[in-house]
Write a structure and sequence with these properties.
The complex is a heterodimer of chains A (about 300) and B (about 400).
Chain A: H1 2-11, H2 29-41, E1 45-49, H3 53-58, E2 70-72, H4 78-94, E3 103-109, H5 110-115, H6 118-127, E4 132-137, E5 163-164, E6 167-168, H7 177-183, E7 188-192, H8 197-209, E8 214-219, H9 223-226, H10 233-242, E9 249-252, E10 255-258, H11 268-272, H12 283-305
Parallel strand pairs in A: 1-2, 1-3, 3-4, 4-8, 7-8
Antiparallel strand pairs in A: 5-6, 7-9, 9-10
Chain B: E1 3-7, H1 8-18, E2 23-25, H2 33-45, E3 51-53, H3 58-70, E4 75-79, H4 81-86, H5 88-91, H6 93-96, E5 102-107, H7 121-125, E6 132-135, H8 139-153, E7 162-167, E8 175-179, H9 183-189, E9 206-207, H10 213-245, E10 252-255, E11 262-266, H11 270-283, E12 288-293, E13 295-297, H12 301-308, E14 313-318, H13 329-338, E15 346-351, H14 361-376, E16 383-385
Parallel strand pairs in B: 2-3, 2-4, 4-5, 5-7, 6-7, 11-12, 11-14, 14-15, 15-16
Antiparallel strand pairs in B: 1-8, 6-13, 10-12
Classes of the chains: A alpha/beta (about 300), B alpha/beta (about 400).
Chain lengths: ~300, ~400
């Protein structure tokens, strides 16, 4: 394992297309995820970016972190803009105006994906565009100041689901976006996390090699919003995976595969205890979350058998 | 080419076909449907070599148009009423990013109560979104102005989106005699589209960066200046269009305005009924005339001022209510344009033709007479919704 860790990074392309100097917070795992995704995508790509953290930190005029063609228009329409780009490339190639077919990638945060942009994304999937959509999920509206989204996990305290005398914080379970993607019967759906960079890069490569829509859901730990020290981002992603809170899997043409399986999952307490957003939770709520995680993990395992 | 009988919507679709549009992204809404159905049919039959994106909403229709236009494709969409409203926030992006999308709007009233019929509430709600906007008054113009829209919007000195307004049902669903154009003439008039900053890995650009307060104002001023200066290209394109078609367009068009003391101002299809009223009143010896705004944005200040400078009374018809505000959006803009003039007519506004309600020749004559009366007793602040029952 040790030599793997030393040598494999040298096999990765050296060139980065998401340049340093952006304004992301210290320890932002989302910026790391974006850099890895952009590295994997390479030069021949056009990106449509939803409004959100990554758009804001990367594009204050007159600077840009993007070394590839990139367009931002609005919050909820990255997938629809991507649809238009893909359709344009298709017809312009057919008419001989263009001679290359760059990959088309749309990206957004969890709010842009699972809340406000869900309709546009569902439409793009249903129409079957050759489009990769990447959701960088930091589990709340971090850009506007840590408001809850439908991707915020049960029990998390945010500025619009604050823990208080009468509330434990977020009272709903996290919306299962990968399952929603899979329900569209698109050819490729996967979850990933920058704490597992090679897996993430592999999946980007696989997703763009797929003809038709592909969806990548990337858990992106956020020290600012989750309230943990910024040097723990990688560990936080690993704990999410090792506790079963965020299983890493893929769905290829309807077939499920768990990419990281563990003989035994760590208790969710190990993950929750290190984050300020869960610090208020009483014992019975932690127990409830453990049960919820077990339940979801079992559901996923059943899908693997199918 | 000879004259044909054709529905306005189908003629407009024919213009899009002759323009060889690359991408059409549209969501169906009455009364725009015949336009997009015909385009979908053309693509399905191979009459038009284009991608038709059947989006899931108007918001996505305009969003897909942004992507398509940014990638360098000639892009068209059409909508109406609520659809235009659902697009609202997306509409602002196209001119700000200088993406020359062409859109037909089959003008429709806004809910509630629900009405699929025509008025200009939808158009007026998007007045300030930064598009070039023109109003057709018959099917022929819907065809002509759509072709001109591509020519104007895509001009390298312009690069702005263009809206062609045609009244829902009154124009979209009426079969009229009109003359189409030969493909060879259109090809001469309309060069291939090429966006200088199209999204391309060989020349990567960042499109849609955000602006801090230190540059936002400058960006907006630059946009406003560019839209104003688009007018010279509009005039030039209309001139060139007249050379291939023999049909002439002007920002403000005149009908029997010579020596007119009283002028009526209209937009869209009602202008033709108004012409009949003007004819009848002229026969009675009344010195009345009609002016129509063909170009709505950039607003033709100079032409409006010139057109009305000798008149004593100007009666303006709005097909849109500005609730508890000034008479109507068109009337208040006309008043604003004339306020600084030494010599200007008295301006009286009327509201009418809401939600598909017709205005008859007789009502136009009454409106003009009433306008003169109101102006005579200094009641310019009054406004009336004409034809209200009970």
């Amino acid at each position: 394992m040790e030599s793997f860790a030393i040598y494999v990074p040298r096999l990765l392309p050296r060139k980065d297309f998401f340049a340093p100097g952006h304004r992301a917070c210290i320890g932002c795992a989302e910026a790391l995820a974006v850099r890895l995704v952009a590295k994997a995508l390479g030069r021949e790509v056009i990106i449509s970016n939803a409004t959100g953290c990554m758009e804001i930190v990367s594009s204050p005029f007159p600077t840009t972190s993007w070394r590839v063609p990139w367009i931002h228009t609005l919050f909820e329409n990255a997938a629809a803009v991507g649809s238009g780009i893909e359709a344009a490339l298709k017809i312009l190639n057919k008419k001989g105006v263009r001679t290359k077919m760059p990959k088309v990638v749309a990206m957004g945060g969890d709010g842009a994906t699972s809340d406000i942009g869900l309709q546009a994304l569902s439409g793009a999937w249903e129409r079957g565009h050759d489009l990769l959509y990447v959701c960088f999920d930091n589990e709340a509206y971090m850009n506007t100041g840590i408001q809850r989204s439908s991707a915020t996990p049960f029990g998390a305290s945010t500025t619009t689901s604050p823990a208080g005398k009468l509330s434990i914080g977020q009272t709903r379970w996290k919306k299962n976006m990968p399952a929603i993607a899979a329900a569209h019967d698109i050819p490729y759906v996967a979850t990933a996390c920058p704490s597992y960079p090679f897996d993430l890069i592999d999946k980007v490569n696989k997703a763009v090699a797929t003809a038709g829509p592909a969806y990548l859901h990337v858990l992106s730990p956020c020290p600012t919003g989750w309230r943990y020290p910024p040097d723990l981002s990688i560990r936080m992603g690993r704990l999410a995976v090792e506790t079963g809170v965020f299983p890493i899997y893929e769905v290829e043409n309807g077939k499920y595969k768990l990419n990281f399986d563990f003989p035994q999952l760590r208790p969710v307490r190990d993950y929750l205890a290190q984050q300020g957003r869960f610090r208020h939770l009483p014992e019975e709520e932690i127990e409830r979350i453990q049960e919820g995680v077990n339940r979801e993990y079992e559901k996923l395992k059943k899908k693997l058998e199918a | 080419m000879g004259m044909v009988g054709m529905e306005g919507s189908l003629a407009l679709a024919e213009a899009v076909r002759l323009a060889d549009a690359d991408v059409i992204a549209a969501y169906p809404i009455t009364p725009q449907t015949h336009i997009v159905e015909r385009l979908a049919e053309m693509v399905a039959n191979g009459e038009l070599n284009a991608e038709y994106i059947p989006v899931e909403s108007e918001h996505s229709a305009m969003s897909a148009c942004l992507g398509s236009s940014a990638a360098g494709a000639r892009t068209f969409t059409a909508t109406a009423g609520q659809g235009l409203e659902l697009m609202h926030e997306v509409l602002y992006i196209a001119p700000s990013l200088r993406l020359p999308v062409v859109m037909a709007v089959a003008n429709r009233a806004l809910s509630a109560p629900l009405s699929v019929w025509g008025d200009h509430s939808d158009a007026m709600a998007v007045r300030d979104c930064g598009w070039i906007q023109m109003f057709a008054e018959n099917g022929q113009q819907a065809f002509d102005l759509t072709l001109c829209a591509f020519r104007i919007g895509e001009h390298p000195d312009v690069l702005f989106p263009v809206m062609v307004h045609l009244d829902g049902f009154h124009l979209s669903h009426v079969v009229e005699p009109l003359v189409l154009l030969e493909q060879s003439d259109v090809d001469r008039f309309l060069p291939k589209y090429s966006h200088p900053f199209a999204l391309d890995p060989d020349r990567p650009v960042t499109m849609g960066a955000f602006a801090l307060p230190n540059v936002y104002t400058e960006a907006k001023q630059a946009q406003d200046t560019a839209l104003k200066s688009a007018k010279s290209v509009i005039l030039q394109a209309w001139q060139e269009f007249s050379e291939i078609s023999g049909r002439h367009y002007h920002p403000v068009e005149h009908y029997r305005t010579e020596d007119a003391q009283v002028l009526l101002l209209t937009m869209g299809s009602f202008s033709e009924t108004a012409m009949v009223a003007i004819d009848e009143m002229r026969e009675e010896g009344k010195k009345v005339g009609l002016i129509r705004l063909r170009l709505w944005r950039p607003f033709p200040f100079q032409e409006v001022r010139q057109a009305v400078e000798s008149a004593e009374v100007l009666v303006v018809l709005d097909r849109c209510l500005s609730y508890a505000g000034p008479p109507g959006p068109v009337c208040s803009e006309i008043k604003a344009a004339l306020y600084s003039q030494q010599k200007r007519p008295k301006v009286v506004g009327f509201i009418g033709g809401l939600g598909g309600r017709d205005i008859s020749v007789q009502e136009f004559a009454q409106m003009i007479a009433k306008g003169v009366d109101i102006a005579g007793r200094g009641g310019e602040e009054e406004t009336e919704i004409i034809g209200v029952r009970g």
